[in-house]
Write a structure and sequence with these properties.
The protein is α+β, with helices and mostly antiparallel strands and 106 residues long. The chain has two helices and three strands, in the order αβαββ. The protein has one domain: High potential iron-sulphur protein (High-Potential Iron-Sulfur Protein, Chain A, Irregular), CATH 4.10.490. It is elongated, with a radius of gyration of 22 Å. The chain binds iron/sulfur cluster. Iron/sulfur cluster binds next to loops. The site of iron/sulfur cluster has 13 residues, from loops.
Length: 106
């Protein structure tokens, strides 16, 4: 029978290895759940209208070649069509979109 401290070390290592093995799976599930839960911001929503949000930056006079994808407040992954914006918690915006709160990335 192993000594108590040896047993607890074994349990600690088992827990650590199990946690490390499951972390990527949990992260993937969390990302998938977030993606499924986030609704796309409607340009006709009052909060979107307040900042002249459009889903197509090319149609916005003030965009000057900028879009949500190049905005400091955009949190979508590179190359994706839409993602979260810090200005609209719980909503996704189009990467090709734009609003008057656009800010340059630092
Ligand atoms: Fe797009 Fe930036 Fe406006 Fe958010 S703050 S809607 S990312 S331009």
């Amino acid at each position: 029978m192993p000594a108590p401290d040896r047993l607890s070390r074994r349990r600690f290592l088992q827990s650590t290895l199990l946690g490390a093995a499951l972390a990527p799976l949990a992260l993937g599930l969390a990302r998938r759940a977030r993606a499924a839960a986030a609704a796309l911001l409607s340009p006709s929503a009052p909060e979107a209208k307040a900042v002249q949000y459009t889903e197509d930056a090319k149609s916005a006079k003030g965009a000057q070649g900028n879009s949500c994808a190049s905005c400091a407040l955009y949190q979508g992954a590179s190359g994706t069509a839409q993602g979260p914006c810090q200005l609209f918690p719980g909503k996704d915006v189009k990467a090709a979109g734009w609003c008057s709160s656009w800010a340059p990335q630092m």
